[in-house]
Design goal:
Keywords: Membrane, Transmembrane, Transmembrane helix. The chain has eleven helices and two strands, in the order H-H-H-H-H-H-H-H-H-H-E-E-H. The protein has about 290 residues and is an all-alpha fold. A hairpin with a 2-residue loop joins strand 1 (about 255-260) and strand 2. Helix 2 packs antiparallel against helix 3 (about 60-90) and helix 3 (about 60-90) runs antiparallel to helix 7 (about 150-185). The longest helix is centred in the middle third of the chain and has 34 residues, at about 150-185. It starts with a helix and ends in an 8-residue tail after the last helix.
């Protein structure tokens, strides 16, 4: 799994169910999410800048200042990625463009990589898929790779802004915790007793762990997709074949593959003998002289 599993599941649904309205809704959702992340990251960046100007920061541990700097860097990069991603998504005019972007059809990186590793990779719509004779035994894997599996680049680029924002926020909280802890231990506030700085440090961790614990507990009650990634992709492939019963014969692979009882599998020697036996037991029409 690469990037966010939630993003991967959404993109797999878009290219798997082939619903135009879902693709356009996904585009709008992604653009709105990028806008929200950009605003949140800008706020975190401003807080990190403020943290760098805290009193006696240079007298605390150097890790505190480093975490503030890294938090600021992550937040700024998150803003840039969000804006760049929204710009790319805004150029996708229709649902077909959205699905092509998810599959990676217009991404030159995939074409260059495919040439380097020695195989052809041209993602396409299932109705436009054409199997290669050299890959007839790997038909299922090739079909899924070209039509139903989201591109790693599209998943990672859409996941990056949120991951960077989360990292920036975590670094900010770590920096603040180190600052408050060292502020208490080294008694940097000469105007107040050290117990005051200690109490502030304790309440900081209480305020940090209570919301975090509530968030984790609530996450236990959310429904999660228990199927593996391969099972999800197989499900979309089988749905397509069930709605297009002539697909295997149209691609001339029905002599090697069979779709029965909602499952696509290769025809082995046992299946060949079974088919031959079925044909031989069929009643023959009497010859009329």
């Amino acid at each position: 799994m690469y990037g966010s599993r939630t993003i991967w599941l959404l993109q797999a649904q878009i290219v798997g169910q082939l619903q135009d309205e879902d693709a356009l809704a996904f585009k709008k959702m992604a653009c709105d999410e990028c806008t929200m992340i950009a605003v949140a990251a800008a706020i975190v960046a401003q807080i990190a800048i403020t943290g760098l100007s805290l009193d006696s920061l240079n007298q605390t541990h150097w890790i505190a200042k480093s975490c503030f700097v890294m938090s600021l860097t992550f937040a700024l990069v998150s803003v840039y990625y969000s804006v760049a991603q929204q710009r790319i998504l805004g150029r996708l005019i229709n649902a077909r463009d959205v699905r092509d972007w998810i599959r990676g059809r217009k991404q030159a990186v995939n074409r260059i990589f495919s040439i380097q590793v020695g195989f052809e990779l041209d993602p396409c719509e299932p109705d436009e898929y054409t199997p290669r004779s050299s890959d007839i035994h790997d038909f299922k894997k090739d079909f899924e790779r070209q039509c139903f599996i989201p591109s790693p680049l599209s998943v990672i680029t859409l996941s990056a802004p949120q991951m960077l924002l989360s990292g920036s926020l975590c670094l900010l909280l770590i920096a603040l915790g180190i600052y408050l802890g060292k502020f208490w231990i080294r008694e940097l506030d000469s105007t107040e007793p050290s117990t005051d700085a200690r109490n502030v440090f304790i309440f900081y961790f209480i305020g940090l762990y209570i919301p975090g614990g509530i968030y984790v507990v609530l996450g236990w009650f959310h429904g999660k997709e228990e199927r593996s990634e391969s099972e999800i992709i197989d499900g979309y492939l089988h749905e397509y074949l069930a709605s297009h019963p002539d697909a295997l014969s149209r691609w001339n692979v029905d002599s090697h593959w069979r779709f029965r009882n909602g499952i696509l599998r290769r025809i082995d020697s046992t299946d060949t003998e079974e088919i031959a036996a079925t044909v031989s037991t069929e009643p023959q029409a009497p010859n009329i002289v």
